[in-house]
Amino acid sequence: MSSEKITEDITVTAPAKDAPALVKKIGRTTYIVRVHFSKTSKETMIDKIKRMLKNEIRQM
Fold first, then answer.
1. What is the SS3 assignment for 21?
2. Cβ(35)–Cβ(20) under 8 Å?
3. What is the pLDDT tens value at each position of the chain, 60 positions in all?
4. 18: how many CB neighbours lie within 10 A of its CB?
5. For residues 37 and 19, what is the distance between their CA atoms, to the nearest angstrom?
6. Residue ranges of the domains in the chain?
7. Could you tell me which of 25, 42, 43, 44 has the C-alpha nearest to residue 33?
8. Which stretches of the chain are DSSP H helices?
9. Which residues touch 9 (CB under 8 Å, ≥6 apart)?
10. Cβ atoms of residues 20 and 13 within 8 Å
């Protein structure tokens, strides 16, 4: 098991024009993940999750 300290996920409030960010600290490295969604997408989040699960099952 790694001796690195893993902290809890923290949601950071970003400026209005920027997407929200998730911040994860692992050891002395901080990872910042920004989330954005396409305004032209025809697929709902539920459809996307179902599609991803089906693709995972096909690979098994």
1. strand
2. yes
3. 555 555 555 555 544 456 667 889 999 999 988 877 788 989 988 999 999 999 999 998
4. 10
5. 9
6. 10-59
7. 25
8. 45-59
9. 22, 23, 24
10. yes
DSSP structure class, residue 18:
S
pLDDT recorded at residue 16: 45
Three-state SS for 52?
A: helix
Q: Which amino acid, 15? A: P
* 26 secondary structure, DSSP code: E
- Which residues are bridge partners to 23 per DSSP? 10, 32
Burial class (CB within 10 angstroms; exposed 0-12, middle 13-18, buried 19+) of 48: exposed
pLDDT score, position 11: 55
Predicted pLDDT of residue 27? 92
